[in-house]
Amino acid sequence: VASKYLDLTTQKFDIARLPNDFGQPEGEEWADGTPKRVVEELIDHWQEHFDWRKQEAALN
Fold it and tell me: Which positions fall inside the Epoxide hydrolase N-terminal domain (predicted)?
C-alpha cells in the first residue's frame, strides 16, 4: 500500500467527528451501533500502535 494512502487514513482519523453516545443503560451500549469509546480505542490503536508495514510484510 502506498504511503500516501496510509497518511490519508491517518489524516481522516485526525479529523473524524464522532457522534455522542446515546447514553444507553449498561448491557445495551451496542443497541444503536458501536459505542463511541470503542471507536475511539480503535482509532488510538491504529494511530499509536498498529504497524501496517509489519502486517503487510507478514501477508506478503
Answer: 2-60
Residue 56 CB partners (closer than 8 Å, separation 6+): 1
Helix (H, G, I), strand (E, B) or coil at 18: coil
Residue with cell 451500549: 29
pLDDT digit string, tens, across residues 5-43: 999 999 999 999 999 888 888 889 899 889 999 999 999
Q: What angle do CA 17, 15, 8 make, to 5 degrees?
A: 135
- DSSP class of residue 19 equals P
Q: Where are the domains of the chain?
A: 32-60
